[in-house]
Amino acid sequence: MDVLIHLFVALHIIGIAALLGGFLTQMKALGQGLARFVPAMLHGALTMLITGAVLVGLNQADDQPVNNIKIGVKLALLVVILGLVYVKRDEETVEKPLFGLVGLLTTANIFIAVLWT
Question: Span 15-24, mean pLDDT?
Fold first, then answer.
């Protein structure tokens, strides 16, 4: 079971890398007001959602403790990120505050995962 959990943790990290990487690649365009949500951001957020749900299930099946409040907060942030990216994915440009909010929520999600024990 540990190997399976580690596999899904790795996939979860790949998802966050795609989401944050897609955000960071648009930083120059953001300065020019031309930033947009790239497909990598949507795919990364979806990967995080699916692998996160699987990880919760695997940990509970393995009788490992799961901090449900932490998972709930992370899920809420991810649902907001996913909603914004999904709704605005076809637009040529995204408003700076909205694009910045996705980056902020993504970063907050990372810090919650790492620092909340």
Answer: 97
- Rounded to whole angstroms, the Cα distance separating 41 from 87 reads 12
Helix boundaries (H) for 26-95: 27-31, 39-61, 68-88
Distance CA 19, CA 106 (A): 8
**23 burial level (CB within 10 Å; 0-12, 13-18, 19+):** buried
Cβ atoms within 10 Å of 92's Cβ, excluding its own: 6
Say if residues 44 and 18 touch (Cβ distance below 8 Å). yes
Cβ atoms of 45 and 85 closer than 8 Å: yes
| Cα angle for residues 21, 23, 27 (degrees, 5° grid) | 110
Closest CA to 26 of 92, 87, 86, 113: 92
Nearest Cα to Cα of residue 38 among 14, 16, 22: 22
pTM: 0.93
- Tell me, letter by letter, the H, E, C secondary structure of 41-57: HHHHHHHHHHHHHHHHH
